[in-house]
Amino acid sequence: MRGIATALRRIPGGRVFVLAAAGCLALLVAGAVLAPVLAPADPQAIDLDGTLEGPSRAHPLGQDRLGRDVLAGILYGGRVSLAVGFSVVGVSLVVGTGLGLWAGYRGGWVDEVLMRVVDILLAFPGILLAIALAGVLGPSLRNLIIALCAMGWVGFARLVRGEVLSLREREFVTAARVLGAGPVRIALGHLLPNLVGVLAVQATFGLAGTILAESTLSFLGLGPQDVPTWGGLLSQGVDYLLFAPHLALFPGLAILVAVLGINVLGDVLRDRLDPRAGPSGERP
Predict the structure, then answer these.
(1) pTM (predicted TM-score)
(2) 281 assigned to some structural domain
(3) How far apart are CA 67 and CA 212, in angstroms?
(4) Partners of 63 in beta bridges
(5) 47 within a domain of the structure (yes/no)
(6) What band does 278 get if pLDDT is binned at 50, 70 and 90?
(7) Any idea what the CATH number is for the domain that residue 240 is in?
(8) Is the residue at 268 inside a domain?
(9) Domain range holding 187?
(10) CA gap 230, 248 in Å, rounded
(11) What distances in angstroms separate CA 151 from CA 40, 98, 131, 273, one per listed residue?
(12) Which of 160, 151, 188, 190 is nearest to 99 (CA)?
């Protein structure tokens, strides 16, 4: 989905689509944050008389196979997706940036070892490794975050290391060395501030990817079982597509809007913060 904001802005009325995606994302985030206030019912409350009922005034998005309110499940599921997304991106950002700075500035065997580890991890599809790790650890929110963090740092480390290899040859770094600045001061005081833009863009796209990965693992039954999740709701709805399509439709739309909206935000940030990127995101 990268580049989608740029592509949308180039078609007639494209800016409207970008603003609409951003607005829908804002509504989802607000709904997740205010879920205890906005939810029409307890997401775990069972009402067998309303099994598989469609949208109604009391239940705007319908009820599931146990009569639970779908809207409440989506609102509370958004809290899980956002918690997992920000936790994984936060940990991956700190770990990946630290390792990338160290490897890129030090070079030598440190850089060689880290890059070989990164290459090995990138040789496998990240989602498959996350599925394997989550399956070994067991279905829970904590284990889901651990499984996604195990792969999340790789992209940050590779990005930061590549940027540092370029930045460390710049005049301002040479001047800092001549003035007696040590490696830590150069890395934190001179290199890191120049990485804020690319890290912000990478974190935004990483958040979208993490939410999609969390939904995938929850869909497969590897997410938390004691709280509603978008992937879990979607998984339940697949069995009733013919009789109650709303069970899969609304959670699927929530995932689509969240991922699309965040990717649109990432494209806008890239265009604003990375002047080296071309109109489709490629650097010359």
Answers:
(1) 0.85
(2) no
(3) 26
(4) 69
(5) no
(6) very low
(7) 1.10.3720.10
(8) yes
(9) 4-42+58-273
(10) 10
(11) 37, 15, 11, 26
(12) 160
